[in-house]
Design brief:
Radius of gyration: 17 Å
Number of domains: 1
Strand content: 25-35%
Order of helices and strands: EEEHHEHHHEHEEEH
Helix content: 25-40%
Number of strands: 8
Structural class: alpha+beta
CATH superfamily: Thiolase/Chalcone synthase
CATH topology: Peroxisomal Thiolase, Chain A, domain 1
CATH architecture: 3-Layer(aba) Sandwich
Largest sheet: 8 strands, mixed
Length: 205
């Protein structure tokens, strides 16, 4: 039995640019993350009104996933057997700061439930899963940097044990206006073997 898995497609968001399989699909010269990601949402014709209520980390992960999954031409009415395995370094720190600021404001004390709900990094997985009906396994890991070895072993294991047919995998880091997303789809189809070396190579492009 052939247990080889491949990187079917990959998306990168960094330095005011978005690329799909190394081909640039959007660019907006601005240092303001919100300005950039909202412009990307509009330009890429992403139809999901709840996007505007998401925290910044979820916006980043959502757009990266949307670029990848739209390319798959999935049937929006059918549940997809695609697992989601994401990771970053800062967890939900960007939103945690916003929540903490509201708590410390004694003159206007009222922590927003809309902010509080995003004080866990895996909420961004939920946003992606709702949009694309992904009801398979999901996990969010915290590492100092992209841990290609862990991601490859973990996602390959999901496929080998038939817990998912494909895995949406990668890194979504955001802190202030500093952001970096690298997501890829692992499948039995593709040309790039899903190995630590190839993940690192694509990430460094």
């Amino acid at each position: 039995m052939d247990n080889s898995f491949y990187i079917k497609s990959h998306c990168r968001i960094k330095n005011s640019k978005i690329s799909l399989n190394t081909v640039e699909v959007f660019e907006r010269e601005t240092k303001d993350f919100i300005e950039f990601i909202k412009a990307a949402y509009k330009s890429l014709d992403t139809k999901y009104p709840k996007f505007f209520k998401m925290d910044r980390l979820s916006k980043l992960a959502f757009i990266a996933a949307d670029v990848l999954l739209k390319n798959e031409n999935l049937n929006p009415e059918i549940e997809q057997d695609i697992a989601v395995v994401l990771s970053n370094k800062a967890s939900s720190l960007d939103t945690d700061r916003k929540h903490q600021k509201a708590i410390q404001d004694k003159e206007n004390y009222y922590p927003s439930p809309a902010v509080f709900v995003y004080t866990l990094p895996n909420i961004c997985i939920g946003e992606i899963s709702i949009k694309y009906k992904l009801y398979s396994e999901n996990s969010f890991f915290i590492f100092d940097s992209l841990n290609a070895e862990h991601l490859s072993i973990y996602s390959n294991s999901l496929l080998e044990t038939n817990k998912a047919k494909e895995v949406l995998c990668g890194w979504v880091e955001l802190d202030g206006d500093n952001y970096d997303a690298f997501l890829y789809l692992v499948s039995t189809k593709g040309k790039i073997e899903h190995t630590k070396q190839n993940i690192d190579k694509l990430y460094k492009l």
